[in-house]
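Researcher: Here's a chain I'd like modeled. Treat it as a single chain, no partners, no ligands.
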Amino acid sequence: MVFRVCAGRVTEHALIERLRARGFEIEPVDGVSGFHRVKDGPGPLSATREHWLGLVYVQQASTGVAAPAIAPEPGEHVLDLCSAPGGKTLHMAELMKDSGCLVASEVSEPRIRGLLGNVYRLGNSNIMVTAGDGRDFPVGATFDRVLVDAPCSGEGTLRRGGGRAPNQSTSFLDYVTNAQRALLERAVKVTRPGGVILYVTCTFAPEENEAVVTDALRRLPVELEPLALPIDHAPG
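Model: Modeled as a single isolated chain. Structure tokens:
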């Protein structure tokens, strides 16, 4: 199990010492600041007092790259178009030092309930949760940075699924690629001139990644910027 230290609520050193005193064996995750791996322990981390106090957030290490990559600043206006369950949203709120405004948009009602639970547990006061399809997000407001953590075919979850590929039909793949392009287009419309958009998925499929970005570069007033990541990764 991997978790992120909620640095706005506790120092990393103090939290690790508390968990070790409870019998957890913990090591840092290379290349992802603030993330640690539980190697052994007396029980699930989610059952600890530290979890319920909002001092830790159980989160895959790979997802910890997004918030530092989009690099929100304190006081900015930031939008997460596909927010639930909230790991990247809450990480961005922490980097913003709980200031500015972070709008967390989500279309699924059950997932909104989980998102709200996580926001309340961590206590971030700069997050505003909204219900609605990101493809239809109102264009009246503009944001400094927009995260598009798009729905996808989920090939990146192969490791957790025992190496079995997701069972996705052709019709689903057609739907999801159209949704990805529409979400990215809406992100462009609500980002201020000179603002930043980060598009991410948890799949390897080029038709859901490179093809979506290439389509946006062809049709929309955006430019591609190089992105240096702190962990080993394939080109693309």
